[in-house]
């Protein structure tokens, strides 16, 4: 059920008009949609390209969420996002690392609001 919810979030975030959402891409991307909901962080790909990565973060949930991304080059975060709000993060990714994404609102990580992205060479 959690996977289905994540796929539905990505369809909304990406503005997809089809009735069946596509699974996340495995192609390395530098422009990534991120959907936050109760209780998951869904991304439009499982692999980011090295270098500058733009993350379009949307709170598709019913409560306030945030997103913190950590990697070798630093830590980036959104403000607290109310339901429906969006924010764009620009992060620096290093080939071979794994970016860690999580909601830092109390108890949210423990409910499953975290994921990782592998980073591939360009």
TrEMBL record:
Signal peptide start-end: 1-22
Keyword Lyase: no
Keywords from the named record: Signal
Keyword Isomerase: no
Protein name listed in UniProt: EfeO-type cupredoxin-like domain-containing protein
Organism in which the protein naturally occurs: Aeromicrobium phragmitis
């Amino acid at each position: 059920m959690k996977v289905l919810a994540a796929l539905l979030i990505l369809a909304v975030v990406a503005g997809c008009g089809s009735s069946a959402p596509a699974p996340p891409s495995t192609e390395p991307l530098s422009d990534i949609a991120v959907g936050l909901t109760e209780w998951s962080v869904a991304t439009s790909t499982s692999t980011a390209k090295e270098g500058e990565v733009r993350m379009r973060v949307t709170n598709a949930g019913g409560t306030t969420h945030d997103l913190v991304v950590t990697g070798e080059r630093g830590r980036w975060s959104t403000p607290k996002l109310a339901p429906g709000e969006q924010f764009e993060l620009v992060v620096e990714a290093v080939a071979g690392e794994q970016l860690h994404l999580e909601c830092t609102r109390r108890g949210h990580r423990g409910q499953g609001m975290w994921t990782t992205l592998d980073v591939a060479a360009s």
